[in-house]
Amino acid sequence: MYPFRYERPQDLAEAVRLLRVHAQARPLSGGMTLLPTLKHRLARPSHLVDLARLDGLHGIACQGGVLSVGAATPHAQVAASPVVRQAIPALAHLAGLIGDAQVRQRGTLGGSIANNDPAADYPSAVLGLGATVVTDRRRIAADDFFTGMFSTALEAGEIVTAVEFPLPLRAAYCKHRHPASGYALVGLFLAETSAGVRVALTGAAPCVLRWTEAEARLSSRPADPLAAIQQLQLAPEGLNDDLAATPAYRAHLAGVLLRRALGQLSASPTAIKD
């Protein structure tokens, strides 16, 4: 690990100022992605600006058909929250599947999506639900936020403050876990909304993506959704190829998880609006 200066701002304005003044500074939230990167000397920030204790970045609220989760809210709080469990049960389920207990206590929603690890769980929920990422400067639609492997639309020094999830009619998340890390070999978030169905995949490709062909088949509201996707196959071209799984295996997993998610969806009640 290279040497750096640790900064603990008292409020969001001070954090923004520190990141603006120090060009090589990095924001630190739960540190579940950043700290291993530093340990392996893959990054060399001049300063770490700790966001974890800033009051304005915490909290969960549901109002006007939108669930808002503060960027520094740990995964464990999202998983256990009665508000999340009532509004979007699939999001609470997803949060409870992230890593292990230690990771869920420290890792945060904002840190997860800002780092945009190809196998992280939260990006699939943000994209699958068509959420809005709120920063200290602007609001970014999920479809515009994730731009590539470990990259997003965030500008230098821009801080994620919250994510706003529109409540779906129903939603489900299914994941095939790596046995050691708990990361998703493939994770699939399926959301039924008034505007149609959205299907987002994580772990399959270098960046979270929407499975548009599955969306098209399911958005027509077929009488038998499982029959509608029976012959559907995700193309393996461009999918991740590593020691854990081949592109063909990941493509196969996507189909398996889609069928499982549809099974969950058929068993779940319509979300209760606030």
Automatic annotation (TrEMBL):
Transmembrane segments: none
Entry superkingdom: Bacteria
One Pfam assignment: CO_deh_flav_C
UniProt KW keywords: FAD, Flavoprotein, Oxidoreductase
InterPro entries, sorted: CO_DH_flav_C (IPR005107), CO_DH_flav_C_dom_sf (IPR036683), Diverse_Substr_Oxidored (IPR051312), FAD-bd_PCMH (IPR016166), FAD-bd_PCMH-like_sf (IPR036318), FAD-bd_PCMH_sub1 (IPR016167), FAD-bd_PCMH_sub2 (IPR016169), Mopterin_DH_FAD-bd (IPR002346)
SMART domains in UniProt: CO_deh_flav_C
FAD-binding PCMH-type domain ranges (all copies): 1-170
PROSITE patterns xrefs: FAD_PCMH
PANTHER family, sorted: XANTHINE DEHYDROGENASE SUBUNIT C-RELATED
Protein name: Xanthine dehydrogenase family protein subunit M
Taxon lineage: Bacteria, Pseudomonadati, Pseudomonadota, Betaproteobacteria, Burkholderiales
